[in-house]
Amino acid sequence: MKHIISVAVENKFGVLARVSGLFSARGFNIDSLAVGETEDPTISCMTIVVKGDDKILEQVKKQLNKLIDVISVKDFVNKEHIDRELLVFKIGVDKKTKPKALRTLKRFGANAIKASADTVMVEAVGDPSHILKMLEALKGFKVKEMVRTGRIAMAL
Amino acid sequence: MKLSGAKIVIESLIKEGVDIIFGYPGGTVLPIFDVLYDSPIKFILPRHEQGAVHAADGYARATGKVGVCIATSGPGATNLVTGIATAYMDSIPMVAITGQVSRSLIGNDAFQEADVTGITRPISKHNYLVKEVDELAGTIKDAFHIARTGRPGPVVIDIPKDVTVLEADYEYPKEANIRSYNPTYISHPGQIKKAAKAIKESKRPVIYAGGGVIISNASDELTEFAEKTNIPVTTTLLGLGAFPETHHLSLMMLGMHGTAYANHAIMESDLIIAVGSRFDDRVTGKLDEFAPHAKIIHIDIDPSSVSKNVHVDIPIVGDAKHALRSLNNIVKAPDTKEWLEQIAKWKKNSPLRYNRDTDSIKPQYVVEQIYEATKGNAIIVTEVGQNQMWAAQFYKYTKPRTFLSSGGLGTMGYGFPSAIGAQLGLPDKVVFDIAGDGSIQMNIQELATAVVNKLPVNIAILNNGYLGMVRQWQELFYEKRYSHTCLKGGCPDFVKLAEAYGAVGIRVDKKEDVRAAIDKAIATDNVVVLDFVVDEEENVFPMVPAGKAINKMIDGMA
Question: What is the ipTM, given to two decimal places?
Answer without folding.
Answer: 0.92
